[in-house]
Amino acid sequence: LQSRHPDVLFLGQQTGLDLSRTYACADAFLFPSRSETFGNVVLEALASGLPVVAYDQAAAGTFVRDGVTGYLAPSDQRNGFQQAVSKLLNANASLDREYARLSVTRLRPIDVARRFAEILRSLRGGESMAA
Q: Do strands 29-31 and 70-73 pair parallel, antiparallel, or not at all (unpaired)?
């Protein structure tokens, strides 16, 4: 990919202050994973006001508003992710970066944990779970 796209920066793994600076300098966040279970990086990107392109599943499917804070690709479409990136390139200026940032500021770890517990209970058929 690097040789085919010399104008794109491939930074590798980032952590801490370097990660914050990277988000702050980025134009968009592309997340082509189909196996991520929660996707904290999606929340970090949204919190930084970045439009996100991802598959419509897990955290991205829950928190990215298609056409508002980014674009979601159906995971069953062969070229879905590429089409979502094309949409982003054509409409980047019309996406609401401030809404993206604000959409995740209301999230609190305890609320996420409670929601996760609700999902687990529903999967067990409503049985109460031991504390």
A: unpaired
